[in-house]
Every structure is written in structure tokens, then in C-alpha cells.
Specification:
Elements (H helix, E strand, L loop, with lengths): L2 E11 L6 E11 L3 E5 L6 H8 L7 E6 L2 E2 L6 H7 E4 L12 H10 L5 H14 L15 H13 L5 E5 L7 H16 L3 E6 L10 E6 L2 E6 L1 H4 L3 H6 L6 H8 L10 H11 L1
Parallel strand pairs: 3-8, 3-9, 6-7, 7-8
Antiparallel strand pairs: 1-2, 1-4, 4-5, 9-10
Helix pairs in contact: 3-4, 3-5
């Protein structure tokens, strides 16, 4: 499988600041892969996301998307079609007055026919459980509904890579569960996903997770391997899965539970 996204020794420093937002990151992401990006606030995760989709250009190194480098301005329209970024705060993304016109906005900029736009909007509204809210103003939606709308508007453009920045933050448990399941369904359907979070529990099903600290990529590998160095992970600002933390407190060693069933099964062995 070919590499869709390549970060080649990428660094980025904010204008007027000596502090690096991202420093010497190397990454290759294949089509269909699910990558979790972990780290504390200020570790460089969101800056990395903006570099990947060409919203900012690297100070050093290069970002290559499907064979196109982001520092070449003529490549940016193509790159923006290939990568969809869902911002951490949905309200920053909305531009239209109703749910359905928000979902239609991106399609209208692709010179599609009115029939194609209507079909695409209806499909996205149904997929993200928003059909009954099509005439509602986005700012009147609940937190979970706003997150669904932000996802629908980007997904509707059929990007090859979907980058979601803290998609479950500030949501109630019910909304967190439904959106987590929806993103997992997209992944199972073949969608390439970069999921940015501080909470490892959200990305335990990822193919790989990478950890950012101080703007640098300090670790990358399968999620289960990161659980073998829990104290280091916590030092990097990673929140470990709750059931894993409970297992540690119960003195379980050599076993890394990530679900309630796994934890209960291991506890029964100790009784």
C-alpha cells in the first residue's frame, strides 16, 4: 500500500517566536490507516494537523500529500480536496445559517449540479443522524450535534484523509459514545483517519499511535506497546485508559486490560 502522507524532517516555528510548534517530525501514513496522535495541550498536535493539510507551510522539511508538496501554492487546492480537518471547536468551522446549508457549502464550491448537491446533502444528513435537524441554525445545536455537523460537512467532501482534532472533547457520555462509534464505522469502511487526542482510550483501535511532546514525535507504535511504558506515557501527558489504570492499582502485572470485560476476567483469576 502506497504512502499517502509523508512528513520529511518537518519543523515549524511560529512567526515572531523562537519556540518551535513542531520539531523534526518524520512520519509516513498509508491510505486506509488509522493513526492516533497523543500528547498534552501545547505538545504540537494541532500544529501538526495544520501542517498536514497545508494550512501552514513547514519552516524546515517538507510535507507531501499524495505526491504533492504543501509548500507549492499551486498544489494547495488539490491537497485541500484530499484532506479534511475537523477543528476541535465546531463553531469555528460553521459558515452557513442552517444545518443543511452548512452540509451543502463544500459541495456548492465543487461546481456540482443541484441534483448532485441535494443527493450528497441528504446522504450526509442521514449518515450523521441530522435529517431531523436540517432547518435548525448550527449555533442552536447541542455540543454533540455540533460535532456531528462538523464531521458531516467535511465527510461530505469525501476526503482521502480525515483529521479530527479532539473530536470527543466537551461532550456528554452519550454523545461521546455515539461519535466514537461513528468514527469507528468510518474507519471500518476504509476511511483514513488521524485522530488527535490526549486520551489514549479513544484510539486503542488505531493501527498505530504517535506521541507528541514539546513539538517532537517522541514515540510511535501499536497502542498495546505504549501501555508497557505507562509511567513514561503519563509523563508525556497521555491519559491512559481507565480500566488499565484500575488494573495497575489492583496490582495486575504483565497484562494490559483495555476493556471492562478484560479487567473483570483478570480479576476473577485472582479470586
Amino acid at each position: 500500500m502506497s504512502e499517502f502522507l509523508i512528513l520529511d524532517n518537518v519543523s515549524y516555528s511560529y512567526p515572531g517566536s523562537e519556540k518551535s510548534g513542531v520539531c523534526q517530525v518524520n512520519l509516513a501514513l498509508k491510505q486506509g490507516e488509522f493513526l492516533g496522535v497523543l500528547g498534552a495541550n501545547g505538545s504540537g498536535k494541532s500544529t501538526l494537523a495544520r501542517l498536514c493539510c497545508g494550512l501552514i507551510a513547514p519552516t524546515k522539511g517538507r510535507v507531501v500529500v499524495d505526491g504533492h508538496t504543501t509548500e507549492v501554492e499551486e498544489n494547495l487546492p488539490y491537497i485541500h480536496q484530499q484532506i479534511g480537518l475537523v477543528f476541535q471547536h465546531p463553531d469555528n468551522q460553521f459558515v452557513a445559517s442552517t444545518v443543511e446549508t452548512e452540509v451543502a457549502f463544500g459541495l456548492e464550491n465543487q461546481a456540482l449540479s443541484s441534483m448532485e448537491i441535494r443527493s450528497g446533502v441528504d446522504e450526509a444528513l442521514a449518515c450523521f443522524y441530522l435529517s431531523g435537524l436540517c432547518k435548525v441554525q448550527p449555533h442552536l445545536l447541542s455540543g454533540g450535534e455540533k460535532r456531528l455537523l462538523s464531521l458531516a460537512g467535511i465527510w461530505n467532501l469525501k476526503p482521502k484523509l480525515l483529521i479530527v482534532d479532539e473530536p470527543l472533547s466537551m461532550l456528554d457520555p452519550g454523545a461521546r459514545k455515539s461519535i466514537h462509534m461513528l468514527l469507528q464505522e468510518l474507519r471500518e469502511a476504509g476511511q483514513t483517519i488521524m485522530w488527535i487526542t490526549h486520551n489514549m482510550e479513544e484510539v486503542m483501535m488505531a493501527d498505530r499511535v504517535m506521541v507528541m511532546a514539546g513539538g517532537k514525535m517522541v514515540w510511535i507504535g501499536p497502542p498495546g506497546e505504549l501501555l508497557k511504558i505507562p509511567e513514561q506515557a503519563k509523563d508525556w501527558g497521555v491519559t491512559l485508559p481507565l480500566v488499565f489504570q484500575l488494573g495497575m492499582e489492583l496490582g495486575l502485572t504483565g497484562f494490559y486490560p483495555t476493556t471492562e470485560d478484560e479487567l473483570v476476567s483478570e480479576i476473577w483469576k485472582l479470586i
